[in-house]
Structures are given as structure tokens and as C-alpha cells.
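SAMPLE LOG
Freezer: B-3
Tube label: C17
Construct: single chain, 498 aa
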Amino acid sequence: MQRKGRVLHIICLIAFLVMIAAVATYAFFTAVFTGVEEDTTITIRSVAGPACNAVSGPQFAHPNNIAPGWSATHTFTISNALDQTVYYNIMFTDVINTFVNVETLVFTLNGTNGGASISQTQIPETDTTVVYNVAIPGNTTQTYTLRIDYLSAGFNQSDDIGAMFNFMIMVDNCTGNITEIPICPEGTLCEEILENNPIRTGGPNFLVVANNENRDQEEGVWQIQDERGTSYIFRGTHQGLNNNVIFAGHQWKILRIEGNANIRMIYNGVCTLNAEGTNCIEGINGNTTAEATTIGNSTFQNPWNHNRFIGYMFGSETGSFNEQHANINNSVVKTFVDNWFNTNITAPYRNMVADDTIFCIDRSLSSGTGLDRIETQYGTRSRTQGDGLPLLVCPREEDRLLLPVGMLNLDEINIAGGRGNQPNNDFFLRTNNTFWTLSPGNYNGINGTVHVLTQGGSLLGLTSGTMNQHGVRPVISLRATVEFSTGNGSLATPFIVN
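STRUCTURE (predicted):
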């Protein structure tokens, strides 16, 4: 699907020039911000045209001889001079990175007044869009603070003497209300889902939960950019959405139509069809059916006494961050999910499931190094609480898993209607049962924690230790070409896929 009005305009150029000067293992360096001014402003004056013009200012330099632990910030503002809501992306481009320890360079982006926020995340090594489809209402200003940190603990900084890092921030693809629909093959489930669920314009308020009190404002199908294009996400209550599917003898809830028109779904229980073949005998599991919506309980990981065990997959006992968090070994819960999938999703249904669904197991850092047994806070939580906004684009390339089956992460729960530490008994993912997500919490030097969705529908409930057993709900994506036989996705007549 073509993107509308893609126009790139430079906001700022940020350069790191590392000079050869070291004391012991410390690589002192010069950090320079060039081509910016402290109050850089971009004013949106039209849609998909010269909408993202920026001003470039004089060089802005930080002091020389900065030791590891250095950080610097830059502020820029996006102002919408129009009377309508428009949408934009933020991109890091023209990236040059000669650092050996690339994980020492991290950024944090905080936006106000509905702007996007990203917790401490490794700066990408290649051109990357870091924020997708941010809504800015008419006659509104959003201010961003970009913070760059050079981490010190756990790394030999002398490795990076003489290294250089450089990138530009760009705003692109300023558009009005996006109404195009992904290309669904004729007669497919994808086409039928979109016909039975009108696309809402504008954008939801991800800072609040979606419940029975705000269905007019929050419930429905909305548009967000994911890794593969414009995604159509379901947000709202169990009663109000036509997102129910019967597939392979089980019931599922549709999470979204992905950018490639595949249909991402979460497990919702066993289904024995009634005599008419139009619904499950016991009906669709809802907000209070608890364990019936899971494939059973599992620990997340065992053992848990090392940072490397925090993820859905993990790497070596020693080495760099990327080596310790390599996607080599399966966690206990991944093996549990895979075994269920291989037993229950067999031919002919297996061929309907995409093999390359992207599951983001975001292990970006909020504090600490993520190495060995060093206390570490992982960053995914901050996007789904406070002023943070969820993303369907994984911050780190290494945290993207291409799999036929996986689980939810915090961003997806926030998008569906949950919110950090805010109970929500009404939205369609709450089932009165605690279940695992993919999103790591922290490692406290003794054990690790992984986020769960709690019985009360709070998406940031933390386990006290990953030895605890909680419910497991697999997530799969049906191919865009999958057809259906009957139904409209409602509770009474779910989509039936034969």
C-alpha cells in the first residue's frame, strides 16, 4: 500500500565525534549538536505537502571531554497551524555508527500534549522510523525533549576511542485522516472484517482505558502504523466489537488487521460448534470466564537469576548485551506455547497461519545495563503509563521475532484498551484471569519480573518472580488470503473459518 504525501524535512542533525583521549578504560569524547537551535520549531501548514518545514539553526555544542555517563538534551516543537487533526512520523535517518559497543548509545524521547514518548532505547544502527502516526489536533503544539545518554557500566569504553555516531531527525508523511483500507483479497476474512467494522477517523486517547463509560469516544477500529504499513486495531469492550473468530476448534479475538492484511488474533478458549455451526455451544468467552480463555498455566522462565532470562528467548551466560539477549534458547513459556500450537493447529489449519508474524519482545533499557546480574529496569513499561504512547514498531531490531505463534506485549494491551496501573473490567482482553505478556519488567539482582495483565485488567501488574505460574494466551496471524464460511464477528454470530 502506498504511503500518502511522504515528504522528509530535517529537524536537526546530531553528531557524536569521539576523540582519542582515554583514562584507563574511559573513552572521553566530544559531543556536538549541529544544525539546530534550542527552540527548533516545525509548523504544519498543509497536509502532505510542505507540511513539515523546519528551521535550521546555528551549531549547538556541548562541552568537550565528556566521560561515560554523559547525557545531553535537545528540545524541538511541532505546531499544527491547521484546523484539522493531522498525523506524522518521526524518523532517524542518515545514520552513521562506528561504535563497537553500540548498546552504549541510547535515546529517550518525551512528547507533551499528546506527543509520542519512547523510553530509553538503543539508538538504531540504520535508518529507522521510531514514531509512527502521531495525531496532532488542529491549532495544537507538541513539544519534544530528546535525551541522548552514553552509558558506562559494563562496557570497555576504550573500544570506542575514535568512533563516530551521526544521525538526523526527520518528520515525514504528514497526512490528514487516513481512510485507505489494506488490499484484502476478494471474498476473504480480511475483507469481511473491515466491512463489518467501520473505520473511525482521528485517533483514540491511549492515555485512558477504553471501557463502558467512554465507548462513544474510544471504542471501534482505529488506524496505527505497524512494522508493515497501516494497521487496523480493535479497541474497546467485549460486548461492543465484532472481533470474534472460530478457527481450528478454538475461539479467538481479533487484535488487528496488520499492515500486510494478515489478521492477528489472541486465543480465547475451546469451541464446540452448535448444531447450526454458527457459534460455540457455550457461547463466546467474556470478561469473567477466567481460565477458560487460556491454554493453561505456565512459569515464564526457570531459572531466573540472570538478566538474560528476562526475555521470551535468551542467549549466552557472558558476553555483550546482544550476546546475552540473543534469540537462541527458548524460555519455558515459549516451549509451552509452541507445544500447544504444534499439537492443536494442524493441517489443514496450519497452512492458514502466517509463519513470519512479528512479535516484539522489547528489551530496551530504562536503567542499568541488562548484563549479568546487574540491577536493570527495562523500558517498555514507560510507553504505556504516564504520558507515554504505545508503538507497534519494535524499538530494537534484535527484539523482533518472526514466528508462527507468540504472545501479547504491553503496547498491544494498551492499544486494545488497557492502561498502566489502571484497572479495567470492561475491555475485551480482560477475562478475570492473570496472564503473561512478552514484556520484561526488571531484574533486581536476584530474580526477574515479566509483565502480566492482571485479573482486574491492569496491564502493568508485575509478577514477584518468574517462577510464578500464570495463564497463557497464544497469538497467531491468519494469512490475508484466508476465507470464511459464515458470521459477522459478533458475539452471537462469530466469523467461522473452516
